Amino acid sequence: MVGALPRDRSVVTLKMLSRKSTIHCLFASPFMAESTQNSSSMAPGFLVASPKLDGSPFERAVILLVHHDEEGAMGYIINKPLEVDFGTLIASVNEEIEEAILPERFEQTVYFGGPVRMEQLWVIFKHEGEQARKAPFDSVEPADIDFAPDWTLSPSGRLIEGFALHETDDYIMPVLGYAGWGAGQLEGELEEGSWLVADFDEALIRQTAPADCWKRALAKIGVDPTAFLMMGKMGSA
């Protein structure tokens, strides 16, 4: 875990990101291997942080789990927006295309995906409509992960710049960094009560404000947020 978050749990400041990593390394070489998920995988799904994680980068986090198998797990926090927009971030990487970036991309939120490889930009997106299959959105990159029907995670610089420059019907969520676990690590954290597990529901991604996401995720699995917090305080006393 890397440092503590500001007390406003729905915002992560850019102080967490160095200028060098933000400008020069957004499109780092893909490293994700082909998915080997099996029937026991918890992905796709959500991890909902317990009060045990208060004071860490995962405080009241909701993590979209995109990969999980016996070798480890990978996911992205979906409820911690950064103080930078997608258009500005892309323009900082390539000033030559700044004027061609769609105006709405300068209003597109970028999220803190997790404390690992915070210099890396990914995009989580859902294919929607015929236009979504046209260039530059029609290719399949080796590092892409199709984690749910019509939902993809990609680190492709070509695709990410395509989203910045071209109209599309796709829903997109740009994220910096990710959360990762080695073999057996996530299972251990679940046993010690650090996380609750919720089924995949795209409404948590698309239709829920970041400030409400944690409470709504708990409600979906039948947990009262107030009682949950009280139990956490009693457990840490």
From TrEMBL:
InterPro entries xrefs: AlgH-like
Signal sequence coordinates: none
A GO CC term attached to the entry: cytosol
Cited Pfam families: DUF179 (PF02622)
HAMAP family in UniProt: UPF0301
Family: Belongs to the UPF0301 (AlgH) family.
Protein name as annotated: UPF0301 protein FIV42_12250
Organism: Persicimonas caeni
